[in-house]
Design brief:
The complex is a heterodimer of chains A (about 180) and B (about 110). Chain A is of the alpha+beta class. Chain A has 3 helices and 5 strands; from the N terminus they run βααββαββ. The termini of chain A are far apart. Classes of the chains: A alpha+beta (about 180), B alpha/beta (about 110).
C-alpha cells in the first residue's frame, strides 16, 4: 500500500501537557516504508544536539525499533494507523556540569500494552526475533512506557555524555 | 534495498545495498534461504559494504541464515560491516557467532 495514498485517520488526541513547543514533531502512518523517513529526520537533529556519531546511531536505532514494534505489535501490521513522534531538548546537572540530552516521545493509539508480555528473549538464546527491546534499552539512558488516556506513550531519553555510548559490550550482563 | 547474487568459485556472494529494516528484511531472509536450502550452496557470503543500517528484523534474517547453514553443513560468512550493523550485532551479543571478515578477498579465502 502506498503510504501517501493511505486513508488518513484522525490524528491522535494527546494529553494537554504536550502543548509545549518541541524541536521536532513527526506525524506519520504505520507503514514500514516510512521508517527511513524517521531515521532521516533524526540524524541531523541529533547532530545539532551535539551527540557523537555513535550516540546518534544509538538513538536512531532505539527509535526505529520502537516504531517498528508499534507497527508490528500495537497495530498488528495495519499500515494506515497514526503514530506521532516528538523530540525535545533536555538538560541536567551532573557533577557541576550541564549535560544536554534529548527526550523522544512516541504515541500510538493501539491497545494498551501488557509490559509483562513484551517479547524480549534472553540474549543467550540463539534464535531469530525478540531483540528489539534489548536494542532499545541498551541504546538509551531511560525507557518508560505509560498508558496516557487511550494512547500508548513511550518516552526515550538520552544524554550526550551518557555512559551508554551506543553498542555496549558483549561482556556486559543484561540489565 | 537491492540484493544481487554472483558466483565466485564455489561460493555465492550476495551483494546488498541500502538499509535493512522491517520493510525489506524478508527479502534478505528469502535470498539467504534460497541459496542455502534450495540451491545447496556450500558457502554463502553476504557483502554488507553497502548497508549503513540493519534493524532487529534484519538481524533475525541473518540469524536464520546462520541457523540454516549450520543445519545444512554449509558456511555463512559476512564481510564489509559498517559501524551501525556491527553495533547492532554487538549489542545483540551475536557478533561473535558470525564469521565476519573485512573484505571479499578474506571472506573468499577463509
Amino acid at each position: 500500500m502506498n503510504p501517501v495514498a493511505a486513508k488518513q485517520p484522525r490524528g491522535l488526541k494527546k494529553p494537554s501537557k504536550l502543548s509545549r513547543a518541541f524541536l521536532l514533531k513527526l506525524e506519520l502512518r504505520s507503514h514500514p516504508t516510512l521508517l527511513c523517513v524517521i531515521r532521516g529526520a533524526l540524524e541531523p537533529l541529533m547532530e545539532m544536539l551535539n551527540f557523537s556519531p555513535e550516540q546518534n546511531r544509538a538513538i536512531i536505532r532505539a527509535v526505529d525499533e520502537a516504531v517498528s514494534n508499534i507497527m508490528r505489535h500495537s497495530y498488528r501490521g495495519r499500515p494506515d494507523q497514526p503514530i506521532e513522534l516528538y523530540c525535545n531538548r533536555l538538560h541536567r546537572r551532573n557533577n557541576g556540569e550541564t549535560e544536554q540530552g534529548v527526550e523522544i516521545l512516541i504515541f500510538d493509539c493501539g491497545p494498551a500494552i501488557d509490559t509483562t508480555k513484551l517479547p524480549a528473549r534472553p540474549l543467550e538464546e540463539f534464535r531469530p526475533g525478540g531483540l528489539g527491546l534489548h536494542i532499545i534499552r541498551g541504546s538509551m539512558d531511560s525507557v518508560q512506557y505509560m498508558r496516557a488516556g487511550r494512547l500508548n506513550r513511550l518516552r526515550l531519553v538520552k544524554y550526550a555524555r551518557s555512559s551508554k555510548g551506543g553498542c555496549g559490550s558483549e561482556e556486559e550482563k543484561p540489565s | 534495498m537491492k540484493i544481487t547474487a554472483r558466483r565466485v568459485d564455489k561460493a555465492t556472494i550476495l551483494d546488498v545495498s541500502g538499509n535493512i529494516d522491517m520493510s525489506n528484511s524478508p527479502e534478505v531472509r528469502k535470498a539467504l534461504l534460497r541459496e542455502i536450502r534450495e540451491k545447496g550452496v556450500t558457502r554463502v557470503v553476504l557483502n554488507l559494504t553497502g548497508v549503513a543500517y540493519i534493524d532487529s528484523s534484519g538481524v533475525a534474517s541473518l540469524v536464520e541464515g546462520l541457523k540454516a547453514s549450520r543445519e545444512s553443513g554449509s558456511r555463512f560468512v559476512l564481510f564489509g560491516l559498517n559501524d551501525s550493523p556491527r553495533e547492532v550485532l554487538k549489542i545483540s551479543r551475536l557478533l561473535k557467532l558470525f564469521e565476519v571478515y573485512d573484505d571479499e578477498t578474506q571472506a573468499i579465502a577463509s
